[in-house]
């Protein structure tokens, strides 16, 4: 019964591998893996395989060799199992195999070799930790307070006087110092393209750095279960050239024209037949907002609203998304939200205000006008 | 000495006596099961109950997967989804895997060590009933305003009253406290049993691996559960009395919960896996027809894993901001623990190597275990590195890891144990054809369900989200995973069908040792008589029933043979234990002193649950009623129990 030729060759190959030519054998899997992963850089919005900044890149540089080592161990050990299963299959009437109790030399070998592999990975880990702990120089570093709420993200730039929600604008190529706080439960701030995640814990300020070296819009999401709508607590980081960023900052610092006071905006005179005048609609929305329940939860500079429960709405119209970055900011979506926020995101803190359709139209027009 | 004088009609020392035939009716009759203190019956109760909870937990998982089959699905309301994943994990960990391990250990370990029962049979019964009532109590939450919905790890402050207003968290808190008491009682029982009731000649290095792992796990339980209990009590006080241990607004710290929880939580995962390790170390040698390769190394690595398991808890907290030094220290321990784990895997392969492998169903699951657990161990290595972990933690990568070690590992190992010991427990062999269908469908379904999750996590999908948006690249693999889970569910149904159909058949004559195994539980009938062994076995080697294979060389000599097993020589002068000779256990000949059945452990367990109920009600009258009821039950139980001790 010769079932040894193929199996024997395989077994001798594994002996070669185990005898120490690991490095030679491990390098091709690492290269192969890096190529495969690069090809799989699918362009998915939240992939961890396509770093766009140094912090994510350092992690990726550690991830690839670790996964290569993992792949190597996987292939070798699974191969041993498969070889054993095929080669040593017994049949009825087979004699008793030699009753081997063990082999101390082998035990030492397969204790030391995995320990060495792991120590190498551990040393690379320490190295990456040290690199991540010392961020690149950045003369124009800005600070952002990232505040987690159930279930939306607040972004506050204390040095720049800007408060917004759901969209974190940062200048490309600058290191941004992030201070993470929570007003309620534990959340986790994660934008995979740019950095690993850091938890946001009430009673504590965690600090991390962000930096994007390419302009773009990078998706992120809360990554620590935080209650009912944890799944819908998303955000984006928008990295833009310094000039664009500065312009955005200037725009956000200002107060958009309000129908109530300040220079009266000059709305376009084009009105559709049968459609209400847009300016009138905006004015009506402003009135509803300022005199309604909205001011109990929101801040909107230019109106009496100064509450901090919900997101700051001052420049609502300039945002690309609503409801914690779960819906694009379009009039249709906004009206759907205003009609019944609980239908869009059940359990969120904004109650159903039972607004009439005309109220919804007016409010939507007003909010969208706040660029 | 002359041939021993044997009392007329008494069995000859060293021979196996067939137990009198037991009719089915008597064995399964009525109230005997409520009052049993026989470790074999308690083991069956544990195992059957655990399997029922396993089906429940599996159903909860299928609901979760169905919700995630497509993006923006509306199959489950978000709160129901959150309850489902919370209860799935809690059920699987506390009500399925742990009791399955305990159930098998309960039946098998006393037999393996040659004892006639556990050290504390009544305490054993109490542990079971408290487990059953605790599990029912926990699930009662579904009917009273909602099951716990903050994850099985229940991070504060989400679990505080302000953020979790229903009683779900209270049911979770109290339920797990009850289960903890049951576990600690069981652990004490196993430790004393294994330390004190081993057959003469069974030194520690002759103890079967499953018994060894049960011993290690019992120590883990005793040292880990108090940390959880403290956390639960502090949370209970926060929720019910208004303290603020975990609320920063009152000077508390949410991280205190995490440290206390994970100091328990990490050893807990070793509690979940070590019994399965022990089972694999039993099954692979039998079905390779050679001894366990490197027995000492396997045992020492098990002990090392148990010990090191207490040093790595904060690898669950790499993202909370403990700092690089702390993270580095915990990373070091986490990597280190991979070494003994690898040693075990290599020793299992070494056992198979040059063996004569018989692929009966237990062996299929054992080999499957090694192959699947390996994958889980490897993904654990990347998670042990804090920088890499910061991209992987709280994503589906971790979900993949935990299911490869807990399902591909613990559950497959326990399944191997069930197929292996089923004939010993029930006197019937599970059907091999159905077993193979179970195995292969499970391998396909399991891998389809969980392997893609490595990719989903790498592509940015967080955990514990009730839905996800299209356009993230997650749609295809979520659908594959869900379909895989249905195949997995089907394989479990085949398993259940196998057990039920086999159970309904009349008892077969499987003999004492249908698998030609080596350890003492196979030296008595299938199923064993109530007193397990007619004669206290004396043990001279690690593999008492294999001593006919070749002379056993131990410590430089050919040891005499153990007088049990098919070829034992009656009245062998060097080896027989004399009639009437007092042994450590105090057994004298045939007078096996087994405690009488008693209902008081059940009553005691019930009383504790009544007290737990008291804490759920706000009105003082109801509170007092339940507390008093519980206390009365407790007092009655204590009196009855103590009276029984002298009976």
Describe the structure.
- The complex is a heterodimer of chains A (371) and B (647).
- Chain A is α+β, with helices and mostly antiparallel strands.
- Chain A folds into 2 domains: 45-84 and 108-253, Cupredoxins -  blue copper proteins (Immunoglobulin-like, Sandwich); 278-368, Immunoglobulin-like (Sandwich), CATH 2.60.40.
- Chain A has 9 helices and 12 strands.
- In chain A, strands 3-2-1-5-8 form a 5-stranded mixed sheet.
- Chain B has 647 residues and is mainly alpha-helical.
- In chain B, 60% of the residues lie in helices and 1% in strands.
- A two-stranded antiparallel ribbon of chain B has the order 1-2.
- In chain B, strand 1 and strand 2 form a beta hairpin.
- In chain B, helix 7 (209-240) packs parallel to helix 9 (295-308).
- The radius of gyration of chain B is 25 Å and the shape is globular.
- Residues 1-28, 554-558 and 565-591 of chain B have low confidence and may be disordered.
- The chains are: A alpha+beta (371), B mainly alpha (647).
What is the global morphology of chain A?
elongated
Radius of gyration of chain B using CA atoms only? 25 Å
Q: Order of helices and strands of chain A, N to C?
A: HHHHEEEEEEEEEEHHEEHHH
Largest interface: A-B, 90 and 91 residues
Number of structurally distinct domains of chain A: 2
- Average pLDDT metric of chain B: 89
Total helices of chain B: the number is 18
User: Which CATH top level class of the largest domain in chain A fits?
Assistant: Mainly Beta
Structural class by secondary-structure content of chain A? alpha+beta
Residue runs with pLDDT of under 50 for 5 or more positions of chain B: 1-28, 554-558, 565-591
């Amino acid at each position: 019964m010769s079932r040894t030729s193929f199996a024997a060759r395989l077994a001798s190959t594994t002996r070669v591998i185990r005898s120490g030519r690991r490095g030679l054998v491990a390098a091709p899997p690492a290269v192969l893996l890096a190529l495969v992963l690069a090809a799989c850089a699918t362009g998915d919005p939240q992939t961890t395989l396509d770093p766009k900044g140094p912090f994510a890149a350092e992690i990726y540089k550690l991830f690839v060799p670790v996964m290569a080592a993992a792949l190597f161990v996987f292939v070798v050990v699974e191969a041993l199992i498969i070889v054993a299963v095929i080669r040593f299959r017994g049949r009825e009437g087979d004699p008793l195999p030699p009753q081997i109790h063990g082999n101390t030399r082998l035990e030492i070998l397969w204790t030391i070799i995995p320990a060495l592999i792991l120590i190498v990975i551990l040393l690379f880990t320490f190295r990456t930790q040290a690199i991540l702990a010392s961020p690149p120089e950045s003369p124009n570093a800005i600070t952002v307070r990232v505040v987690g709420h159930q279930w939306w993200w607040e972004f506050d730039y204390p040095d720049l006087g800007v408060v917004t929600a759901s969209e974190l604008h940062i200048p490309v190529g600058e290191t941004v110092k992030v201070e993470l706080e929570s007003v309620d439960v534990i959340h986790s701030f994660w934008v995979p393209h740019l950095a690993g995640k850091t938890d946001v814990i009430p009673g504590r300020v965690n600090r991390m750095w962000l930096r994007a070296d390419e302009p773009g819009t990078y998706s992120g999401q809360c990554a620590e279960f935080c209650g009912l709508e944890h799944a819908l607590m998303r955000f984006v980081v928008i990295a833009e050239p310094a000039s664009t960023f500065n312009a955005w900052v200037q725009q956000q610092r200002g107060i958009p024209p309000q129908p109530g006071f300040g220079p009266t905006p000059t709305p376009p005179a084009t009105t559709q037949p049968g459609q209400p005048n847009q300016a009138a609609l905006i004015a009506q929305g402003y009135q509803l907002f300022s005199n309604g329940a909205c001011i109990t939860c929101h801040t909107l500079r230019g109106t009496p609203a100064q509450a901090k429960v919900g997101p700051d709405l001052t420049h609502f119209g300039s945002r690309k998304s609503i409801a914690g970055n779960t819906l694009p900011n379009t009039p249709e979506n906004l009206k759907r939200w205003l009609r019944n926020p609980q239908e869009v995101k059940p359990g969120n803190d904004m109650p159903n205000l039972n607004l009439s359709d005309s109220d919804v139209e007016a409010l939507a027009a007003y909010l969208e006008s706040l660029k | 000495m002359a041939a021993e004088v044997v009392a007329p009609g008494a069995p000859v020392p060293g021979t196996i006596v067939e137990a009198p035939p037991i009719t089915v009716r008597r064995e399964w009759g009525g109230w005997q099961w409520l009052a049993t203190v026989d470790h074999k019956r308690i083991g069956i109760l544990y195992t059957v109950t655990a399997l029922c909870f396993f089906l429940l937990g599996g159903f909860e998982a299928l609901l979760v997967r169905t919700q995630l089959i497509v993006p923006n699905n509306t199959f489950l309301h978000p709160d129901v989804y959150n309850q489902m994943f919370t209860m799935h994990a809690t059920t699987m960990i506390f009500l399925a895997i742990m009791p399955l391990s305990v159930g098998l250990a309960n039946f098998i370990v006393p037999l393996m060590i040659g004892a006639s029962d556990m050290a504390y049979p009544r305490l054993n019964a109490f542990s079971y009933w408290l487990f059953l009532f605790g599990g029912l109590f926990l699930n009662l939450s579904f009917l009273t305003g909602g099951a716990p919905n903050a994850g099985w790890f229940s991070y504060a402050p989400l679990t505080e009253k302000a953020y979790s207003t229903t009683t779900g968290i209270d049911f979770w808190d109290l339920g797990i406290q009850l289960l903890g008491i049951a576990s600690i009682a069981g652990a004490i029982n196993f430790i004393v049993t294994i330390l004190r009731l081993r057959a003469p000649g069974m030194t520690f290095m002759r103890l079967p691996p499953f018994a060894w792992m049960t011993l290690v796990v019992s120590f883990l339980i005793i040292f880990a559960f108090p940390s959880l209990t403290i956390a639960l009590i502090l949370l209970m006080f926060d929720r019910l009395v208004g303290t603020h241990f975990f609320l920063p607004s009152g000077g508390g710290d949410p991280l205190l919960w995490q440290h206390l929880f994970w100091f328990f939580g990490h050893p807990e995962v070793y509690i979940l896996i070590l019994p399965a390790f022990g089972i694999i170390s039993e099954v692979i040698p039998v079905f390779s027809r050679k001894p366990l390769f490197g027995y000492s190394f396997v045992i020492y690595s098990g002990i090392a894993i148990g010990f090191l398991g207490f040093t790595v808890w904060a690898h669950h907290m790499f993202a909370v901001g403990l700092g690089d030094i702390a993270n580095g220290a915990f990373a070091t321990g986490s990597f280190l623990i991979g070494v003994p784990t690898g040693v075990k895997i290599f020793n299992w392969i070494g056992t198979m190597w040059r063996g004569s492998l018989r692929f009966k169903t237990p062996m299929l699951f054992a080999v499957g275990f090694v192959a699947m657990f390996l994958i889980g161990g490897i993904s654990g290595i990347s998670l042990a590195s804090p920088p890499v972990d910061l991209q992987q933690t709280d994503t589906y990568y971790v979900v993949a890891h935990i299911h490869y070690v807990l399902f591909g590992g613990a559950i497959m190992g326990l399944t191997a144990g069930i197929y292996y010991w089923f004939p010993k427990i029930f006197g019937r062999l599970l059907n091999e054809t159905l077993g193979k269908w179970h195995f292969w469908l499970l391998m396909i379904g399991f891998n389809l369900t969980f392997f893609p999750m490595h990719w989903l996590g790498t592509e940015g999908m967080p955990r514990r989200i009730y839905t996800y948006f299209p356009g993230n690249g997650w749609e295809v693999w979520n659908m594959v995973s869900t379909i895989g889970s249905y195949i997995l569910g089907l394989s479990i149904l085949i398993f259940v069908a196998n057990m039920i159909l086999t159970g309904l058949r009349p008892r077969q004559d499987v003999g004492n040792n249908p698998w030609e195994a080596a350890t003492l539980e196979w030296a008595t009938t299938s199923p064993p008589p109530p007193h397990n062994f007619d004669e206290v076995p004396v043990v001279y080697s690690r593999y008492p029933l294999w001593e006919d294979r070749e002379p056993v060389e131990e410590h430089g000599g050919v040891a005499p043979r153990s007088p049990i097993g098919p070829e034992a020589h009656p009245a062998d002068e060097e080896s027989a234990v004399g009639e009437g000779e007092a042994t450590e256990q105090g057994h004298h000949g045939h007078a096996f002193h087994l405690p009488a059945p008693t209902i008081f452990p059940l009553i005691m367990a019930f009383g504790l649950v009544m007290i737990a109920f008291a804490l759920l009600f706000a009105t003082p009258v109801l509170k007092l009623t339940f507390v008093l009821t519980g206390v009365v039950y407790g007092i009655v139980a204590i009196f009855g129990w103590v009276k029984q001790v002298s009976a």
